[in-house]
Amino acid sequence: MADHNDFGKTAEDLAVTHLQKNGYIILIRNFRFQKAEIDIIAEKDNLIIIVEVKARSTDIFMLPQEAVTKTKIKLLVSAANHFMEEFNKDQEVRFDIISVLADHKNNLTIEHITDAFEAFDAN
Length: 123
Hints:
This is UPF0102 protein AAFP95_02570. Helices cover 29% and strands 40% of the residues. It is α+β, with helices and mostly antiparallel strands. It has one domain: 3-Layer(aba) Sandwich (Trna Endonuclease, Chain: A, domain 1). β2 and β3 form a beta hairpin. The chain is globular, with a radius of gyration of 14 Å. The protein starts with a helix and ends in a 6-residue tail after the last strand.
């Protein structure tokens, strides 16, 4: 596996740990629907939380969360809709981003951006 894949897996594991420490229940990891993949689907306060994890080894070019494009949002919304239908969920959905950024010493900083975008942002 390539180093960037290892870093991405590490970032997702850190995100799960962060969420669990903050009272989130992890429902599914790496939920796939057509071309889309949701990194983490969690539940808290009767909300379904769709979490996109973005990791970068540097922020020279852009912050990790800036890599969530309108195309990515459309895919996430589509996959979230499918998840809600497939598992017969009727709760409100929130979209979060967890950004994992390494510094020059490979220390990792996690930023949890709640309610990062809404489904209509995909249009």
